[in-house]
Amino acid sequence: MPVDGMTGQGWVDPGFLESVADPVVVVDPRGVLGFVNEAARRLIGLRHDRPLGMPAAEVFVEAAERAAFEEVIRWVRGG
Known about the structure:
There is one protein chain. A two-stranded antiparallel sheet has the order 1-2. By secondary structure, it is mainly α. The chain has helices at about 15-20, 40-45, 55-60, 65-75; strands at about 25, 35. The relative contact order is 0.14. The longest helix is centred in the last third of the chain and has 11 residues, at about 65-75.
């Protein structure tokens, strides 16, 4: 699985990250999932057919709390 926009800069080796026994999640500065290894998929229940590139908030924040979470993120970013 490529780590979109990160491997080209030499930041991440997806093969290494996939081989790590611990859960590994890579989120880009926009809050988008760039990589989730098998251990993390099992932990958070993310199926393989769920595409990367989705907002991390959709995976880690309950739907009822998502608007408040996104408001905090906007505030942190100065918007």
